[in-house]
């Protein structure tokens, strides 16, 4: 197997197999890795154009019922102040997104399934739709919920949902989650979300202790099997107050490289899905998110979270931009994206092309 041979197959539109995906993820020579990114970027620009979509990220609460072993806001972590934004605070962030012509917002928080929370989210989704005259697209990233809740939020106006599988290896999943977590239930949630009509995104953490190249290659096949529309994945970064973070040291450059390779191979393999260049990449390198775009991603999520809450929404150590505000994040990101020759598609939802095709197939 050589890189040239695989590139010839990619150009001929043959579907790569697991072995070839593993080969690409294992590339070590800098010139070959560069060629991989270039190939993925070519596919990104030819299928989706030189456009990047912004999703304003509102991390509105760090209260969480779950205890994922890697996450800084897990319920057992007592070293942080818990917060929940008010409706007014969230609306003011949504207004910022609207005034600055972001096509969409993402509402993310710790996982809660109580009635107060479910109603709160339903209400805020309706309000954001109201104040924006339906203009702002809404993505939710609120974990595992019942079908009833997913339907409720969809009816209120949310149309995209992100739920990472974290790893498609059930054994590894078990190791990084508490015993009451279920891989099967997470998978089921992805299916329910699709049935409800959402554009569905999933993703994994890259570079989890014990994760192999075979696991990562299988993750990419999993994305295809689940027929998802969006991918949000990023490097695992230890948090000192978590069981997994305490015992793990990472090499930032290697972790970044693996994250970028995953983006590139996913773009080459899936072509028409939306792929986010996540903040975790920037935590590893100041230019991490631009590198993500140049490796084939097409979505950026500028942080809209009020500065005073940012330090308490630390999923991992070294999270960037904690002392910045939304306006600073916008101008900084805009400059960086334009500097690499990409255009920000202001005012557009930037729905997944894959979703449009999926719907078309279902109608025919
Ligand atoms: N509670 C929701 C949304 C918030 S967590 C949920 O779990 O879906 C969002 C994502 O943050 C998770 O899916 C996980 O992949 C990521 N994350 C958590 N801890 C992390 C860490 N230490 N390093 C990198 N990503 C992490
Ligand atoms: Fe809670 Fe999500 Fe963190 Fe798990 S990953 S502890 S569900 S916020």
Provide the helix percentage: 40-55%
- Count of alpha and pi helical runs: 16
Gross morphology is: globular
Q: What are the segments in which pLDDT stays under 50 over at least 5 consecutive residues?
A: none
Rg for CA atoms: 19 Å
- Bound small molecules, which ones? S-adenosyl-L-homocysteine, iron/sulfur cluster
**Average predicted confidence as pLDDT:** 95
* Class by alpha and beta content: alpha/beta
Task: Give a verbal description of the structure.
- The protein is of the alpha/beta class and 364 residues long.
- It contains 16 helices and 10 strands.
- It has helices at 3-11, 18-25, 30-48, 87-99, 115-131, 147-156, 170-175, 183-196, 213-226, 243-246, 252-270, 279-284, 288-294, 307-310, 326-339, 353-363; strands at residues 51-61, 104-109, 137-141, 160-162, 199-202, 205-206, 230-235, 274-277, 299-300, 343-344.
- Strands 1, 2, 3, 4, 5, 6, 7, 8, 9 and 10 form a 10-stranded parallel beta sheet that branches.
- Helix 9 links the parallel strand 6 and strand 7.
- Helix 9 runs parallel beside helix 11.
- The longest helix is centred in the first third of the chain and has 19 residues, at 30-48.
- The mean pLDDT is 95.
- S-adenosyl-L-homocysteine (SAH) binds next to loops.
What is this entry, summarized?
The protein is an alpha/beta fold. It has helices at 3-11, 18-25, 30-48, 87-99, 115-131, 147-156, 170-175, 183-196, 213-226, 243-246, 252-270, 279-284, 288-294, 307-310, 326-339, 353-363; strands at 51-61, 104-109, 137-141, 160-162, 199-202, 205-206, 230-235, 274-277, 299-300, 343-344.
């Amino acid at each position: 197997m050589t890189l040239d041979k695989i590139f010839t197959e990619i150009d001929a539109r043959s579907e790569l197999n697991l072995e070839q995906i593993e080969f690409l993820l294992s590339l070590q020579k800098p010139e070959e890795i560069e060629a991989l990114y270039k190939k993925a970027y070519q596919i990104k620009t030819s299928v989706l154009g030189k456009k990047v979509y912004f999703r304003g990220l509102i991390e509105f609460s760090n209260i969480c019922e779950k205890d994922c072993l890697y996450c800084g806001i897990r319920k057992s972590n007592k070293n942080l102040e818990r917060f929940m934004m008010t409706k007014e605070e969230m609306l003011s962030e949504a207004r910022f997104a609207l005034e600055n012509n972001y096509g969409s917002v993402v509402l993310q928080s710790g996982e809660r399934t109580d009635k107060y929370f479910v109603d709160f989210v339903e209400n805020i989704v309706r309000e954001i739709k109201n104040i924006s005259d339906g203009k702002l697209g809404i993505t939710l990233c609120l974990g595992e919920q019942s079908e009833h809740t997913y339907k409720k939020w969809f009816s209120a106006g949310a149309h995209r949902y992100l739920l990472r599988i974290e790893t498609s290896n059930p054994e590894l999943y078990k190791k990084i989650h508490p015993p009451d977590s279920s891989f099967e239930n997470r998978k089921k949630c992805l299916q329910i979300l699709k049935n409800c009509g959402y554009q569905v995104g999933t993703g994994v953490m890259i570079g989890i202790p014990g994760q192999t190249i075979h696991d990562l290659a299988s993750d990419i096949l999993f994305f295809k099997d689940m027929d998802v529309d969006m991918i949000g994945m990023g490097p695992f970064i230890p948090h000192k107050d978590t069981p997994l973070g305490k015992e793990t040291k990472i090499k930032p450059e290697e972790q970044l490289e693996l994250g970028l390779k995953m983006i590139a191979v996913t773009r080459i393999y899936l072509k028409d899905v939306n792929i986010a260049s996540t903040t975790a990449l920037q935590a590893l390198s100041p230019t991490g998110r631009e590198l993500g775009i140049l490796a084939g991603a097409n979505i950026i999520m500028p942080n809209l979270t009020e500065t005073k809450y940012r330090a308490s929404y630390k999923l991992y150590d070294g999270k960037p931009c904690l002392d910045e505000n939304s306006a600073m994040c916008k101008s900084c990101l805009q400059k960086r994206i334009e500097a690499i020759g990409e255009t920000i598609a202001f005012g557009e939802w930037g729905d997944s092309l894959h979703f449009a095709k999926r719907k078309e197939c279902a109608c025919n």
